[in-house]
Design a protein that fits this description.
This protein is mainly β and 327 residues long. It contains one helix and 26 strands.
């Protein structure tokens, strides 16, 4: 090859790689759109309701995650004091408990959080929260009494305040699994009383590697599902961390959860900015096929599903997104 052509080829490498990546993402977006169009739209009624502040100085920020207990009370983990990002400043506690009309019943957590990220309810009815800055995972009663605190630690130095854990899931044997996706790229296993047992995973794009494991869920058979957000896939593992496979055609999978005996995800196109409009999808656990979907608007950051199959997530500051099935 002539010297000039060789040098031109070297100069093209980064530009050509970027063009190839853009082309691949565009093709993936078209393929995902086709899958969605072929899937049935779920008959769920979309409801948005605002949380009613008890006073004018009770500022409420972005609901990072929303869940519901067995009595139908709604638990909102919100960011009214998120450092460097939130435009809302107020006296609202991070954890808000509201009824189905959005009326505030109780709240807690002032001073316990830096960046509230995920809220889940375990099989015994306890509330768990995950902080994506401090890497603290906390367990509460339904009334807000703190029962346990796990300091995950091991955070590498980064410039972002987002530098810690992302989500939590509960295994059939009582153990808890935590995704540590900001700063790290790993999954950690703990006993029910907070003793660390093991961790696995590393940064990368291969099987069992992660680029921002953003959410985690475990089914009744002990299959672990991890939303590997920046790799654009849903990976599957057994309880020992052994890789079982992945589905890489579902877009930028942001959240995953089990509810009503079904597997659900929240996702969006990979060629759009994080937080763009997307979908909440019901997924076949054997094939990865989309069994049904609803448009999520911007409400696919963290998803919880009730036993009746209702979907709950945050939408905008002080606003909860609720998809209800017919009763």
């Amino acid at each position: 090859m002539p010297q000039k052509s060789f040098l031109l080829g070297l100069a093209c490498l980064p530009v050509c790689a970027q063009i190839a990546d853009t082309t691949a993402l565009t093709e993936q977006a078209a393929a995902l759109r086709a899958l969605v169009q072929e899937a049935p739209r779920l008959r769920l009624e979309k409801t948005e309701f605002k949380i009613q502040p008890p006073g004018p100085d009770f500022g409420i920020g972005y609901p990072s995650a929303v869940t519901m207990d067995r009595d139908g009370l709604i638990y909102v983990l919100q960011r009214s004091e998120e450092p460097g990002r939130s435009t809302v400043r107020g006296k609202a506690d991070p954890v808000l408990v509201v009824n189905r009309d959005g009326k505030l019943l109780r709240s807690w957590g002032k001073g316990l959080f830096k960046i509230p990220h995920s809220i889940r309810i375990d099989p015994k009815g306890n509330i768990w929260t995950v902080d994506s800055s401090s890497s603290l995972v906390m367990k509460f009663t339904l009334l807000g009494e703190k029962l346990l605190e796990i300091s995950v630690g091991g955070q590498p130095p980064t410039k972002s305040a987002f530098n810690g854990t992302t989500d939590i899931a509960f295994a059939p044997n009582g153990h808890i699994f935590i995704s540590d996706g900001y700063g790290n790229a790993r999954i950690l296993e703990y006993t029910a009383d907070g003793k660390r047992l093991r961790e696995w995973g590393s940064a990368g794009s291969g099987p069992g590697q992660f680029r921002q494991p953003h959410s985690i869920a475990i089914d009744e058979h002990g299959v672990i599902y991890v939303a590997d957000r920046q790799n654009g896939r849903l990976q599957r593992f057994d309880l020992n961390g052994r890789y079982l496979g992945e589905w890489a055609n579902l877009g930028m999978v942001t959240t995953v959860t089990m509810g009503g005996g079904a597997l659900w995800i929240g996702t969006q196109q990979r060629n759009e900015p994080t937080g763009a409009e997307g979908w909440l999808m019901k997924i076949d656990r054997q094939s990865g096929k989309i069994l049904g979907y609803v448009e999520s608007a911007h409400g696919h950051h963290m998803l919880n599903v009730t036993a009746d199959g209702d979907l709950l997530s945050g939408a905008r500051p002080d606003t909860v997104l609720w998809f209800r099935g017919s009763r």
